[in-house]
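For homework, think about our next protein:
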Amino acid sequence: MSTPEAVGQGDPSSVAADQLKSIIERIEPLEEEKAGIAGDIKDVYAEAKANGFDVGVLRTIIRLRKKDHDERSEEEAILELYLQALGMA
């Protein structure tokens, strides 16, 4: 009779370790790429600031552009309501 190892199932802990190693090895270069992109974004914001743009407002615009029209409208309505409640409108 053959054991599970002999028919190709292998040691479950070894298989899990191999899968884990594979996942980590795929994530690592993506993290490096992400860090490079983050650096590029930082450089663009620095350029914008050097040209007199308000970086905080640019970040807000980028965040808003990611949302669809209905989501932005709802957020703006709630903001207006909150500002009115605080006497800031």
